[in-house]
Specification:
The complex is a heterodimer of chains A (about 450) and B (about 140). The longest helix of chain A has about 40 residues. Chain A is globular, with a radius of gyration of 22 Å. A two-stranded antiparallel sheet of chain A has the order 1-2. Chain A has a domain of about 160 residues. In chain A, α7 packs parallel to α13 and α8 packs antiparallel against α9. Helix content of chain A is about 75%, strand content about 0%. The termini of chain A are close together. Chain B has about 140 residues and is an all-alpha fold. Chain B has two domains: about 40 residues; about 100 residues, Cytochrome c-like domain (Cytochrome Bc1 Complex, Chain D, domain 2), CATH 1.10.760.10. Chain B has a two-stranded antiparallel sheet with strand order 1-2. In chain B, β1 and β2 form a beta hairpin. Chain B is elongated. The model of chain B has no long low-confidence stretch (mean pLDDT about 95). Classes of the chains: A mainly alpha (about 450), B mainly alpha (about 140). At the A-B interface, α1, α2, α4, α7 and α8 of A face α1, α2, β1 and β2 of B.
Chain lengths: ~450, ~140
């Protein structure tokens, strides 16, 4: 750690890991409800568990991005953070707002939450992933503005590297596109159309800039390859990401009432979306093969390589599987979508945040890398989580193929619930893989507490 | 990458590509807004019941279990075409009859909707079922 103020990243990373645990526990509850329908009903209905599962994911990834940015920007800019104090104040505001929102989800019926938070004044609730009460959304905007102010001031007074510029652009984009969450027209088609300007333009747009920048930063550190080379790769990757991803938004516009020209635009451009992820995999392996130093943090290197591979598989390959309009006609809104969602989020965004945590946490704790013993445990966690996520994805894909066949392709289509009964075996297997994932998460947390011989920073 | 391809060239291609792509998205969006009136059943929004029904849909987080035009959670049936699959009376009776309490089966909460709210909900689902979705879903089961 070169600058004292980079240490503000630490509470962000710790909170992120806490929310990660919550996300997985609620995921397991949902997984069980898929096969034991009345599990925990009426205390935790499925929709409540799902809100906690998805919202905890979003918030902990945002916490991870923020922590990463607080660590990365001062180091790239070669200056202290503009205001470490503001960063800590915003951390507590964000954490308390997130906790209150989750308590709201769990403590009262959603309609009551909507009522007591005044949703009717500016209705934004009750849309997938944007379930947060409007006041929470306003809180997110305030935290984001403070965060961007703090980092932009840091960025502007220091060295402006490509990595920091791309990261800042991604973070500003994240905040700007979030504003579409306040637009909720009565017209359902327009509601859905612009809802994707938050969801798609985040995960297949500006978040890829953040992902690319964090990955590039860690690769420079662990490989010692020339900045010049890495920054060139970064620009190429994010060009491919935005050129394919922006118009690729159209793959969500096939069946929601939007004009049918989107079937062409969406299919063609989104078919190119695997390309930047493939480039990212090549990038990570190339840089590690050309490394000029043996960095003692081998776990961070493993996470960086894993991000490339899993992002390509989850976002690239599993995205392509169902992105062409004639295929998507049958798979839209099936377990195929769920399979893709799980591996894409894990491979791209969970893994890149864990890469950064793996790299930065030891430095913030005063050492270049954790002890060999701790790293071995961390790498076990890597394999447990990654392999179980592969299996979660494969089981959901199998469930999805059967679902599509029984419910949508067959000459004698079954109803939704009759189909669900037929595929429950795969849901059981998914739940078992989910338990292994939880073991991986616990192993990961344990690795932070393992001592042994460490090398000084 | 070769030395003739400089970082500043890469950067310029990035900014050019990003701006071009965003403008293309805006152009297609502009065209979408022109075509939408023929597809999105907006005349039905003059009916206050449809608007109220959408609010009830949102305030009870229906999307947390169901899909609507294929978007949402995959735990419970598609409701974009439920008006055509089941009809208005079934929908109201179903919502009123929840939860079924059948052991081991997936349960839908009781939302305590008034008769008026149930009618609003039905009006909203009718509106949703008449949006032109390019013939999706493949069959009535959703």
């Amino acid at each position: 750690m070169k600058y004292k103020s980079q240490a503000v990243a630490k509470p962000y990373f710790i909170a992120a890991m806490g929310l990660f645990v919550a996300q997985i526990l609620f995921g397991l509850i949902m997984g069980l409800q898929y096969v034991i329908g009345d599990f925990l009903f009426p205390h935790i209905p499925f929709n409540v568990a799902r809100m906690v599962h998805t919202n905890a994911l979003i918030v902990w990834l945002l916490m991870g991005f923020m922590g990463s940015a607080y660590y990365l920007v001062p180091e790239e800019a070669e200056t202290e953070l503009h205001s470490p104090k503001l960063a800590l104040i915003l951390f507590w505001i964000f954490l308390v707002a997130a906790a209150l929102t989750v308590i709201g989800y769990l403590a009262v019926p959603y309609a009551t939450l909507a009522k007591i938070t005044g949703n009717d004044l500016l209705p934004t609730m009750g849309r997938e992933f944007l379930e947060q009460p409007t006041i929470t959304k306003i809180g997110i905007v305030i935290v984001a503005l403070g965060f961007l102010y703090n980092l932009s001031m840091t960025f502007l007074k220091g060295r402006k590297t490509a990595i920091a510029s791309v990261l800042m652009l991604g973070l500003w984009g994240l905040a700007i596109f979030f504003l579409f969450s306040f637009y909720n027209p009565h017209n359902l088609v327009k509601d859905k159309f612009y809802w994707w300007w938050v969801v798609h333009l985040w995960v297949e747009g500006v978040w890829e800039l953040i992902l690319g920048a964090i990955l590039a930063f860690v690769l420079i550190k662990v490989t010692g390859v020339d900045r010049e080379v890495i920054e060139k790769w970064l620009y190429v990757i994010i060009t491919l990401a935005l050129v394919s991803g922006m118009v690729g938004t159209g793959h969500h516009y096939f069946w929601i009432g939007a004009p049918e020209f989107w079937q062409w635009w969406g299919s063609i451009f989104s078919a190119l979306e695997p390309v930047p992820f493939f480039a990212m995999t090549l990038f990570a392996f190339n840089m590690v093969n050309r490394r000029r130093r043996e960095h003692p943090n081998r776990a961070a290197t493993l996470w960086a390589l894993g991000t490339g591979v899993m992002a390509f598989l989850g976002a690239g390959v599993w995205g392509f599987l169902h992105t062409l309009a004639p295929v998507n006609f049958y798979t839209h809104g099936s377990q195929i979508t769920a399979a893709h969602g799980h591996m894409a989020f894990y491979g791209a965004y969970v893994m890149v945040v864990l890469t950064m945590i793996s790299y930065a946490m030891p430095l913030m704790r005063g050492r270049a890398a954790n002890s060999n013993k701790a790293q071995v445990v961390e790498m076990w966690a890597f394999w447990l989580m990654t392999v179980s996520m592969v299996f979660i994805t494969l089981f959901l894909t199998a469930a999805g193929i059967l679902q599509v066949w029984l419910q949508r392709v067959s000459d004698t289509p079954l109803s939704f619930m009759a189909t669900q009964d037929q595929i429950s075996l795969f849901y059981w297997m998914r739940e078992a893989a989910g338990l292994v994932f939880l073991i991986g998460v616990v192993t990961y947390l344990v690795s932070f507490f393992i001592k042994g011989e460490e090398r000084a920073a | 990458m070769s030395s003739t391809f400089t970082t500043s060239a890469a950067r310029n291609i990035f900014y050019g590509g990003a701006v071009f792509s965003f403008l293309l998205l805006l152009a297609l969006t502009f065209r979408t807004e022109q075509v939408l009136p023929q597809r999105d059943q907006r005349a039905q929004l003059d009916n206050p019941q449809v608007v109220a029904g959408k609010r009830i849909w949102e305030n009870n987080n229906c999307i947390g279990c169901h899909t609507l035009l294929g978007e949402g959670a995959y735990f419970a049936p598609e409701l974009g075409n439920v008006y055509k699959r089941r009809g208005p009376d079934f929908i109201k009776a179903w919502i009123k009859g929840q939860p079924t309490g059948a052991p081991g089966r997936r349960q839908m909460p009781q939302f305590n909707l008034t008769e008026q709210e149930l009618d609003d909900m039905v009006a909203f689902l009718k509106y949703a079922s008449e949006i032109n979705t390019a013939k999706w879903p493949p069959n009535i089961e959703g």
